[in-house]
Amino acid sequence: LYTVSPQQFTTPTLLMLCQDSDQHVRESAQEALGAVGGPAAVDALLALAADNDPQVRVRAAGALARAADSDPRVPRHLVSLAQDTEAEVRAAVISGLSSAAGELARWASLVVRLANDPAPVVRLRVAVAARRLAPEAAPDILGRYVRDPDARIRRVAGAELGRLSGPAAR
What we know:
This protein is mainly α and 170 residues long. The chain is built from 10 helices and no strands.
């Protein structure tokens, strides 16, 4: 019996939609490529991750993070995107990883490194994702963040810290 993977059906369609004239359609197709994963989808996302437009790299970073377990090339590219000059790209890596499935503990060192990022948008994403991506380091990160200069980060860190020490954590 001949079997066909869902990727063989969806990836070509998504690649075609990535060229659509409607920006929303293009963005949705790029995001879906990350969920589908596989070599062809990752090829397209890697090309987008190298784009000059930071917003294209933001979408690629988030989608690639969701495809982290589907292709061995993805992890090193995520590490590179986590060092992008644009804070939104670095933040998108964290957001994508926090919504990914699979082995998340391997990203703990990246989260710990980004916890010291100078950009508030990155620290805010780390505050939200630390419990899931770096559970061992989360108490320290969130403890520091409750004294962060940015009020949003302090508020989120306080709530996340409460979840760590709340009844469900016991």
